[in-house]
Amino acid sequence: MITKVKDIIITRGDSKGFNFRVRDAQGAATALDAAHFSVKEKLDDSDYVLQKTLGAGITQLDSGDYYVKIEPADTEGLELQKYYYDLQITIDDDVYTPLKGRFDVRWDVTE
Q1: What pLDDT shows up at residue 12?
Q2: pLDDT digits (tens, 9 = 90+) for 24-61
Q3: Percent of the chain with pLDDT over 90
Q4: Is the predicted pLDDT of residue 111 greater than 80, yes or no?
Q5: In angstroms, rounded to a whole number, what is the distance separating the alpha carbons of residues 32 and 60?
Q6: Number of domains comprising the chain
Q7: Structural domain that includes position 90
Q8: Is the Cα torsion angle 35, 37, 43, 48 positive or negative in sign?
Q9: Domain with 60 in it: what CATH number?
Q10: The pTM of the whole model exceeds 0.85
Q11: Beta strands in the chain (DSSP E)
Q12: Which residue among 12, 51, 67, 100 is the one 20 to 30 A from 82 at the CA level?
Protein backbone atom coordinates (compact mmCIF):
# COMPACT_ATOMS: atom_id res chain seq x y z
CA MET A 1 0.00 0.00 0.00
CA ILE A 2 1.32 3.42 -0.95
CA THR A 3 1.47 6.20 1.64
CA LYS A 4 -0.02 9.45 0.35
CA VAL A 5 1.27 12.66 1.93
CA LYS A 6 -1.45 15.31 2.15
CA ASP A 7 -1.80 18.28 4.47
CA ILE A 8 -5.13 18.94 6.19
CA ILE A 9 -6.10 22.56 6.86
CA ILE A 10 -8.83 23.19 9.42
CA THR A 11 -10.20 26.32 11.04
CA ARG A 12 -10.04 25.97 14.81
CA GLY A 13 -13.46 24.96 16.18
CA ASP A 14 -14.91 23.89 12.82
CA SER A 15 -16.21 20.51 11.68
CA LYS A 16 -14.29 18.57 9.05
CA GLY A 17 -14.43 15.09 7.66
CA PHE A 18 -13.03 12.95 4.91
CA ASN A 19 -13.65 9.56 3.35
CA PHE A 20 -11.11 6.90 2.59
CA ARG A 21 -11.47 3.66 0.68
CA VAL A 22 -9.73 0.32 1.15
CA ARG A 23 -10.13 -2.26 -1.61
CA ASP A 24 -8.65 -5.70 -2.23
CA ALA A 25 -6.96 -6.79 -5.48
CA GLN A 26 -10.37 -7.55 -7.02
CA GLY A 27 -11.74 -4.10 -6.13
CA ALA A 28 -14.03 -5.28 -3.33
CA ALA A 29 -14.37 -3.26 -0.12
CA THR A 30 -12.06 -4.54 2.60
CA ALA A 31 -13.08 -4.67 6.26
CA LEU A 32 -10.59 -3.14 8.68
CA ASP A 33 -9.61 -4.73 11.97
CA ALA A 34 -8.52 -1.32 13.30
CA ALA A 35 -8.11 2.27 12.17
CA HIS A 36 -6.49 5.24 13.92
CA PHE A 37 -6.40 8.88 12.85
CA SER A 38 -3.82 10.41 15.19
CA VAL A 39 -2.56 13.99 15.59
CA LYS A 40 0.51 15.00 17.61
CA GLU A 41 2.28 18.28 18.24
CA LYS A 42 5.72 16.70 17.79
CA LEU A 43 6.52 13.38 16.16
CA ASP A 44 8.20 12.00 19.29
CA ASP A 45 5.37 13.03 21.69
CA SER A 46 3.76 10.17 23.57
CA ASP A 47 0.40 11.96 23.85
CA TYR A 48 -2.02 12.77 21.05
CA VAL A 49 -3.72 16.14 20.77
CA LEU A 50 -6.47 14.38 18.81
CA GLN A 51 -7.21 10.75 17.99
CA LYS A 52 -10.11 9.02 16.26
CA THR A 53 -10.53 5.25 16.10
CA LEU A 54 -12.78 2.78 14.34
CA GLY A 55 -16.16 3.11 16.06
CA ALA A 56 -15.13 6.34 17.82
CA GLY A 57 -14.90 8.97 15.11
CA ILE A 58 -14.18 6.62 12.21
CA THR A 59 -17.22 4.86 10.77
CA GLN A 60 -17.79 2.48 7.89
CA LEU A 61 -20.33 3.74 5.37
CA ASP A 62 -22.86 1.61 3.47
CA SER A 63 -20.64 1.95 0.37
CA GLY A 64 -17.81 0.18 2.20
CA ASP A 65 -15.81 3.41 2.42
CA TYR A 66 -14.78 4.82 5.79
CA TYR A 67 -15.42 8.32 7.15
CA VAL A 68 -13.25 10.25 9.64
CA LYS A 69 -15.24 12.96 11.48
CA ILE A 70 -13.51 15.83 13.27
CA GLU A 71 -15.88 17.64 15.63
CA PRO A 72 -15.62 21.33 16.62
CA ALA A 73 -14.67 20.36 20.19
CA ASP A 74 -11.68 18.39 18.86
CA THR A 75 -9.85 21.54 17.74
CA GLU A 76 -11.35 24.45 19.70
CA GLY A 77 -8.67 24.21 22.41
CA LEU A 78 -5.70 23.64 20.09
CA GLU A 79 -2.98 26.20 19.51
CA LEU A 80 -2.80 27.77 16.05
CA GLN A 81 0.03 25.81 14.49
CA LYS A 82 0.92 22.87 12.30
CA TYR A 83 0.74 19.42 13.89
CA TYR A 84 1.60 15.99 12.47
CA TYR A 85 -1.01 13.36 11.65
CA ASP A 86 -1.33 9.93 10.15
CA LEU A 87 -4.03 7.44 9.32
CA GLN A 88 -3.01 3.91 10.29
CA ILE A 89 -5.09 0.85 9.44
CA THR A 90 -4.83 -2.83 10.32
CA ILE A 91 -6.01 -5.67 8.08
CA ASP A 92 -5.35 -9.29 9.12
CA ASP A 93 -2.45 -8.31 11.41
CA ASP A 94 -0.82 -6.22 8.67
CA VAL A 95 -0.38 -2.53 9.50
CA TYR A 96 -0.47 0.18 6.82
CA THR A 97 -0.24 3.98 6.83
CA PRO A 98 -2.10 5.10 3.70
CA LEU A 99 -2.18 8.80 4.63
CA LYS A 100 -0.02 11.23 6.58
CA GLY A 101 0.99 14.88 6.60
CA ARG A 102 0.61 18.11 8.50
CA PHE A 103 -2.57 19.05 10.36
CA ASP A 104 -2.69 22.83 10.10
CA VAL A 105 -5.01 24.53 12.62
CA ARG A 106 -5.83 28.04 11.43
CA TRP A 107 -7.45 31.06 13.07
CA ASP A 108 -11.13 31.78 13.29
CA VAL A 109 -12.86 35.14 13.65
CA THR A 110 -16.48 34.24 14.42
CA GLU A 111 -17.17 32.67 17.78
Answers
A1: 97
A2: 889 889 999 999 999 999 999 999 999 999 999 999 99
A3: 88
A4: no
A5: 9
A6: 1
A7: 4-106
A8: negative
A9: 2.60.40.10
A10: yes
A11: 4-5, 8-11, 16-20, 34-40, 50-54, 57-60, 66-70, 82-91, 94-106
A12: 67
